[in-house]
């Protein structure tokens, strides 16, 4: 049942190329320049006329929402807010029938997300769901939605659900941008083709597994980790830190790289491994200077870099290489080495990887 892997988590990490394909199959036709999402077609005007899109979720799904904020605002120019469902529902939020809410949930059963959806509906908002579990409470409570087709996720630490959520959200943003006219034909076609290539890129990223296992061996006894990223890879840094915390019980924090100087840099010393997502992007030079700041304080750098990288590779203590893809799609590949790193550390520490202490797969308590 674990398909030859020691843990469901590893099986699910390795399933990502195929489940991302399942998620866009029949919905993304790159050659024809088409995106067709059954649940979306009738509601496109609702999205395009919305004052803003509010994304609500918890945990890893909330991180997928944060990635989507970058993608949606850039492509569609519709304002996006991302909220923890638990905060949203208890703070008397301002919400009207001009708002569109996207609720993201792997299980479709998360109590806070479900309650936030009910509140948004009461206030007249249109609520769109992105769930993995078919027929789940959230998929029934929302007005419409799109399923991720990740298949059952058994490991408590969410992996393939995250990348398939981002796949769906990216398709929605591209469809809306195309309809609204906020993306050029050329960019639209490019993204469609590149999205179709993501399963191949993820396969490529998975090839670093052995190398990452060696890195895990070096750092398994660290008591703290920092994860840094910028732009749409800032949420990936948060997600990397969450994965490490929940399955290895090592304290880890994710930060936007530029926030370092506003406090966390005080933590840097020779005992602090810092995982930096330093892929080719508009932020590359800025990330290089962030790395210099860390190195000059004797911090240890484990960098996620694009293949062919030289500058960061020279500065970093360890690198994890991912293939090239347009910046907007990079979260789908940069996530992979971070999943593997936390997995190997947890295994080396003999943790219960698939069922970490104190955690449940569906959080149905409030
Ligand atoms: C992290 C994790 C949790 C869930 C969160 C939301 O690996 O699994 O943080 O992401 O409990 O769950 P869903 O997506 O089912 O609403």
Walk me through what this model shows.
- It is a single chain.
- With 366 residues, the protein is of the alpha/beta class.
- It contains 16 helices and twelve strands.
- The strands form three sheets. Strands 4-3-5-6-7 form a five-stranded parallel beta sheet, with helices on both faces.
- α8 links the parallel β6 (126-131) and β7 (144-147).
- The radius of gyration is 20 Å and the shape is globular.
Low-confidence spans: pLDDT under 50, at least 5 residues?
A: none
Describe the biggest sheet?
A: 5 strands, parallel
* Count of strand segments: 12
How many DSSP H or I helices? 16
Spatial strand arrangement across the major sheet: 4-3-5-6-7
- What general form does the structure show? globular
Strand-and-helix sequence, N→C? HHEEHHEHEHEHEHEHHHHEHEEHEHEH
GO cellular component, one term: cytosol
Domain SIS: 43-182, 215-356
GO biological process, one term: fructose 6-phosphate metabolic process
Organism: Ulvibacter litoralis
Quick overview:
By secondary structure, this protein is an alpha/beta fold.
Salient structural properties:
single chain; 366 residues; alpha/beta; 5-stranded parallel sheet; 16 helices; 17% strand; binds fructose -6-phosphate; EC 2.6.1.16; glutamine amidotransferase; transferase; cytoplasm
């Amino acid at each position: 049942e674990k398909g030859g892997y020691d843990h469901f988590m590893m099986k699910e990490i390795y399933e990502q190329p195929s489940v991302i394909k399942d998620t866009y199959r029949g919905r993304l036709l790159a050659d024809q320049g088409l995106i067709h999402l059954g649940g979306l077609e009738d509601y496109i005007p609702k999205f395009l006329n919305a004052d803003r899109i509010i994304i609500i979720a918890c945990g890893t799904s909330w991180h997928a929402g944060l990635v989507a904020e970058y993608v949606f605002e850039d492509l569609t120019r519709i304002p996006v807010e991302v909220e923890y469902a638990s905060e949203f529902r208890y703070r008397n939020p301002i919400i009207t029938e001009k708002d569109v809410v996207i609720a993201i949930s792997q299980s479709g059963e998360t109590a806070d997300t479900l309650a936030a959806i009910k509140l948004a509906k009461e206030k007249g908002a249109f609520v769109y769901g992105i769930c993995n579990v078919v027929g789940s409470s959230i998929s029934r409570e929302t007005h419409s939605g799109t399923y991720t087709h990740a298949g059952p996720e058994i490991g408590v630490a969410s992996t393939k659900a995250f990348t398939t959520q981002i796949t769906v959200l990216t398709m929605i943003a591209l469809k809306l941008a195309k309809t609204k006219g906020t993306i050029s034909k050329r960019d639209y076609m490019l993204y469609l083709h590149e999205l179709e290539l993501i399963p191949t890129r993820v396969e490529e990223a998975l090839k670093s597994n052995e190398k990452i296992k060696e890195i895990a061996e070096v750092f398994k006894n660290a008591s703290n980790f920092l994860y840094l990223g910028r732009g749409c890879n800032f949420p990936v840094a948060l997600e990397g830190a969450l994965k490490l915390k929940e399955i290895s019980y090592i304290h880890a924090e994710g930060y936007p790289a530029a926030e370092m100087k506003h406090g966390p840099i005080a933590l840097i010393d020779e005992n602090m491994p810092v995982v930096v997502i330093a892929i080719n992007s508009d932020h590359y030079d800025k990330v290089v200077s962030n790395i210099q700041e860390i190195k000059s304080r004797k911090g240890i750098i484990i960098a996620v870099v694009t293949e062919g990288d030289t500058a960061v590779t020279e500065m970093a203590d360890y690198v994890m290489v991912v293939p090239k893809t347009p910046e907007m799609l990079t979260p789908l590949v940069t996530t992979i080495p971070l999943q593997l790193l936390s997995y190997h550390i947890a295994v080396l520490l003999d943790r219960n990887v698939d069922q970490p202490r104190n955690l449940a797969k569906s959080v149905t308590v409030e």
